[in-house]
């Protein structure tokens, strides 16, 4: 079932169901796009129709972040649970370890995707790393990278270019790549590689992961100003 929030349709699936859906996509062999939707993206999409269209044309949209889960509740259309990009990536790689799935990691600074891939392989020996490439390339280089991914023949393509560039890149090149599951995962490679730390569990439980990121990276302050604006928009739209 899909629930509507500020014009975006979100799949009401928990983590296990989301992974199962991805497994279905892989079995079908046809290309699919997955979006982990966070408040920042959804807020921006209110003013940029093309960003909303990318969400509503995706094959699977997850509620990435406490803000989205909260907003769905306020809107009277609660979703089962938060399914973030990084958690989904880790769960898909764990399942991939049993299934022998091939994964390709595209994005982050030079060296990071390789380090993340190495860690994933250590944790999930059955997982096959089909390839990696950093995320600092020009539009003109995209053709070469697309060809590289196509040849590597992954089941899953993880793209960490930051939102919304990763969603736009996937939508543009997915028809040529034809990978069964293509998914944007933001800063996940930085965390999986060990270069950046994720908020401690207690902060995740208190739903203040955003505060941790703000303390660690004060430059995110401007970006995070979107969060109260998003909250206000939700309250105004659904409560007033
Ligand atoms: N990135 C990239 N190419 C770029 C800009 C960013 O590969 O041209 C990477 C960056 O190194 C980081 C990720 O994209 O690993 C974005 O991380 P961020 O934490 O900003 O993601 P978000 O908050 O969107 O999940």
List the helices and strands and how they pair.
Elements: E1 2-5, E2 8-11, H1 15-28, E3 33-37, H2 39-47, H3 49-56, E4 60-63, H4 66-74, H5 85-99, E5 102-107, H6 112-123, E6 128-133, H7 142-152, E7 156-160, H8 165-177, E8 181-184, H9 188-192, H10 201-205, H11 209-216, H12 221-224, H13 226-238
Parallel strand pairs: 3-4, 3-8, 5-6, 5-7, 7-8
Antiparallel strand pairs: 1-2
Describe the structure in your own words.
The chain is α/β, with parallel strands linked by helices and 240 residues long. It contains 13 helices and eight strands. It starts with a strand and ends with a helix. 41% of the residues are buried. The mean pLDDT is 96. It binds uridine-5'-diphosphate. Uridine-5'-diphosphate (UDP) binds next to helix 9.
Structure at a glance:
With 240 residues, the protein is α/β, with parallel strands linked by helices. The protein has 13 helices and eight strands.
């Amino acid at each position: 079932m899909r629930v509507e929030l500020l014009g975006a349709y979100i799949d009401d699936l928990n983590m296990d169901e989301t992974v199962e859906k991805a497994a279905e996509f892989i079995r079908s062999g046809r290309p699919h796009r997955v979006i982990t939707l966070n408040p920042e993206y959804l807020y921006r999409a209110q003013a940029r129709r093309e960003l909303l269209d990318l969400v509503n044309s995706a094959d699977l949209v997850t509620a990435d972040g406490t803000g989205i889960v909260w907003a769905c509740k306020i809107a009277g259309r609660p979703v089962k649970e938060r399914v973030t990009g990084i958690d989904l990536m880790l769960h898909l790689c764990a399942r991939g370890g049993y299934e022998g799935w091939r994964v390709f990691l595209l994005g982050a600074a030079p060296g990071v995707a390789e380090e993340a891939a190495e860690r994933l392989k250590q944790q999930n020996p059955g997982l096959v790393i089909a390839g990696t490439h950093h995320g600092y390339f020009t539009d003109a280089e995209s053709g070469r990278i697309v060809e590289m991914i196509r040849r590597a023949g992954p089941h899953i393509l993880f793209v960490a270019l930051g939102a919304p560039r990763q969603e736009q890149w996937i939508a543009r090149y997915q028809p040529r790549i034809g990978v069964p599951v293509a998914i944007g995962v933001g800063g996940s490679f930085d965390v999986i590689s060990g270069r950046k730390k994720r908020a401690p569990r207690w902060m995740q439980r208190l739903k203040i992961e955003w505060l941790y990121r703000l303390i660690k990276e004060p430059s995110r302050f401007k970006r995070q100003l979107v969060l109260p604006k998003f909250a206000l928009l939700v309250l105004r739209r659904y409560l007033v």
